[in-house]
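Figure 3 (text version): structure tokens given as input.
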């Protein structure tokens, strides 16, 4: 089957989001399930011997691309709303073709799972993305330590394991989220125990561990810096609810911070957002947590923030940096952003400047001088979170803003336009006119 993905993207790429700015946001929305938890969990499902029922999976392009990879590998996948049922019993293929690998940057997450399933995997390098080169050296060096022989040539990864993967002790030079997940997936059926030191601590790691343990794996310490995995013979299926998307929640909080108003976000996990609340309160917002909801109210123009430094969890998430920046663009005063995770994560800046923002970038530092007003313009999304940031700025710009390359936004946000429209924004998707 030669899936032609470009069709999906071409259609979306021709669409634009049209915004008439200046509306305050009021109302409540349900926050989607976490993209960055759904993807490794879908990959993990193929290791199982029986079907998995995965709830709260957002209907977004990246998840649907992962589903296409699972189907290409022979798994059956059924979607009913936000519930995906993955039946791994038809797994028969160990190769993921280039077209599929390239459609989703994080498709490298299938390396650990396919190898765990059948001891070998034939993938193509996922390639870079809009955030700069996306190296996988930590993934590869870790899996080689577990006995996987990996030949890298012509943009392909041909991976073999003579007998079986061997548990071992792995020290990560950087707490890479994807590498931690790939090692966990490779380790669940390895012979012996695997210890991952300096592991990523993101909530998505803990969610993956919970899914794996529900399937009979033995993963300990997920969410901490040392994760241990005792290899088991096989994994059954399970039923699992994906955690809420903390980045989507932070995105809508930035939107109400930029526009003013009062919104309630339901179905969130407040503990996953603890590093973001202080910035919204410093901006003058009122944050009220009620069980699994948060109420955010902004009565005035946001105040400038103390320096925003992105970091690994539990630090301020890099994925929330672009949209928080969009909130500060019309802030009172100057806010400095330091992007410590990716080397090219200020792609939203040029488009924010087209709307009238005053931002200076020097390497990993961006200085935002708040302005009194923004004026609507035709702008283009260049990556997922940057695209959302430009839309957030358009919500508080005078006049009409038209955002191109909706496909980037649809990779990670479910019902993005509908949610903002429900909150009172004048926003709609139209066919591709500038
Ligand atoms: C995950 O990407 C997320 N994606 C990203 O979200 C998120 O920004 C990132 O973690 C950090 O939190 C998914 O979970 C699908 P990393 P990942 O490995 O795993 C370097 C979004 O918008 N690195 O922790 O790729 C790398 O270059 C996306 O939802 C190596 O050098 O992140 C980067 O600078 C964007 N070698 C840093 O580590 C490696 O082998 C963080 O990467 C791996 C990573």
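Below: residues designed for each position.
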């Amino acid at each position: 089957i030669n899936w032609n993905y470009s069709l999906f993207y071409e259609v979306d790429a021709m669409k634009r989001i049209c915004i008439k700015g200046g509306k305050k946001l009021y109302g409540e929305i349900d926050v989607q399930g976490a993209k960055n938890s759904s993807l490794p969990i879908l990959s993990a499902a193929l290791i199982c011997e029986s079907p998995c029922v995965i709830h709260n999976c957002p209907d977004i392009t990246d998840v649907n691309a992962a589903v296409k990879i699972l189907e290409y590998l022979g798994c059956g996948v059924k979607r009913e709303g936000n519930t995906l049922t993955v039946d791994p019993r038809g797994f028969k293929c160990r190769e993921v073709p280039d077209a599929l690998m390239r459609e989703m940057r994080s498709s490298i997450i299938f390396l650990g799972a396919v190898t765990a399933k059948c001891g070998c995997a034939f993938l193509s390098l996922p390639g870079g993305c809009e955030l700069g080169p996306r190296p996988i050296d930590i993934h590869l060096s870790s899996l080689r330590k577990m006995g996987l022989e990996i030949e890298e040539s012509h943009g392909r990864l041909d991976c073999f394991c003579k007998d079986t993967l061997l548990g071992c002790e792995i020290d990560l030079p950087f707490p890479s989220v994807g590498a931690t997940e790939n090692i966990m997936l490779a380790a669940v059926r390895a012979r012996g125990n695997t210890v991952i030191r300096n592991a990523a601590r993101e909530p998505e790691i803990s969610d993956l561990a919970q899914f794996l343990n529900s399937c009979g794996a033995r993963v300990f310490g997920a969410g901490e810096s040392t994760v241990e995995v005792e290899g088991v013979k096989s994994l059954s299926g399970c039923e699992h609810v994906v955690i809420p998307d903390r980045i989507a929640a932070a995105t809508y909080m930035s939107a109400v911070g930029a526009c003013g108003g009062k919104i309630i976000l339901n179905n969130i996990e407040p503990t996953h957002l603890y590093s973001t609340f202080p910035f919204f309160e410093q901006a003058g917002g009122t944050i009220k947590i009620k069980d699994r909801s948060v109420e955010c109210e902004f009565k005035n123009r946001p105040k400038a923030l103390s320096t925003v430094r992105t970091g690994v969890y539990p630090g301020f998430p890099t994925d929330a940096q672009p949209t928080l920046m969009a909130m500060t663009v019309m802030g009172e005063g100057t806010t400095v952003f330091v992007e410590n995770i990716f080397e090219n994560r200020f792609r939203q800046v040029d488009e924010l400047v087209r709307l009238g923002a005053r931002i200076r970038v020097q390497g990993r530092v961006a200085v935002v001088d708040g302005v009194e007003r923004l004026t609507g313009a035709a702008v283009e999304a260049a990556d997922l979170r940057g695209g959302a940031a430009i839309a957030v700025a358009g919500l508080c710009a005078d006049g009409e803003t038209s955002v191109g390359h909706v496909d980037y936004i649809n990779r990670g946000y479910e019902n993005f336009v509908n949610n903002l429209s429900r909150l009172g924004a004048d926003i709609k998707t139209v066919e591709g006119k500038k």
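The longest strand covers residues 15-20.
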